[in-house]
């Protein structure tokens, strides 16, 4: 079982949040799974924890379409923060708009963090959604 210190689920849909949490319980040991209904709440939490010297979450499940601060705005603000650790960010969406995929790909190419793209509904969580696997060894 994978062991992580912190996972954030940023999604305003309680059914998606429930499903992700339920799947996580079967494949990961993590004492700190936090949920946020929008990107602003999550960003405020990350900034507060960084000020206190607390590491950012190792994994984020991030919805694109949310009120107040959507997933794209969250990513733009997250990338401005001085975070050296690579975060695995799973962008989750019910959107079928190809521009969302293109925008994700642009973020993926231009940022330090690992970005995955997942369509809703999420039926499973893959190992690469939680941890990078080194295939070079």
UniProtKB/TrEMBL annotation:
Q: Name one GO biological process term.
A: phosphorelay signal transduction system
Ranges for domain Response regulatory: 6-135
Tell me which InterPro entries the record gives.
Answer: CheY-like_superfamily, Sig_transdc_resp-reg_receiver, TCS_response_regulator
Keyword list (alphabetical) reads: Phosphoprotein
Keyword Phosphoprotein part of the UniProt annotation:
yes
Q: The organism sits in which domain of life?
A: Bacteria
Positions bearing 4-aspartylphosphate: 63
Q: Can the keyword Phosphoprotein be found in this entry's annotation?
A: yes
The record ties this protein, via PANTHER family, to: RESPONSE REGULATOR RCP1, RESPONSE REGULATOR RCP1-RELATED
Name the record gives this protein: Response regulator
Q: What is the lineage of its organism?
A: Bacteria, Pseudomonadati, Bacteroidota, Flavobacteriia, Flavobacteriales
């Amino acid at each position: 079982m994978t062991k992580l210190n912190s996972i954030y689920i940023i999604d305003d849909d309680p059914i998606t949040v429930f499903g992700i949490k339920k799947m996580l319980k079967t494949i990961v040991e993590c004492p700190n799974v936090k949920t946020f209904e929008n990107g602003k709440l999550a960003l405020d939490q990350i900034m507060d924890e960084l000020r206190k010297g607390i590491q950012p979450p190792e994994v984020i499940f991030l919805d694109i379409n949310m009120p107040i601060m959507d997933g794209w705005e969250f990513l733009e603000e997250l990338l401005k923060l001085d975070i050296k650790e690579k975060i695995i960010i799973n962008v989750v969406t019910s959107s079928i708009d190809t521009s969302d995929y293109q925008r994700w790909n642009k973020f993926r190419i231009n940022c330090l963090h690992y970005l995955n793209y997942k369509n809703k509904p999420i039926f499973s969580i893959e190992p690469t959604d939680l941890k990078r696997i080194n295939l070079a060894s």
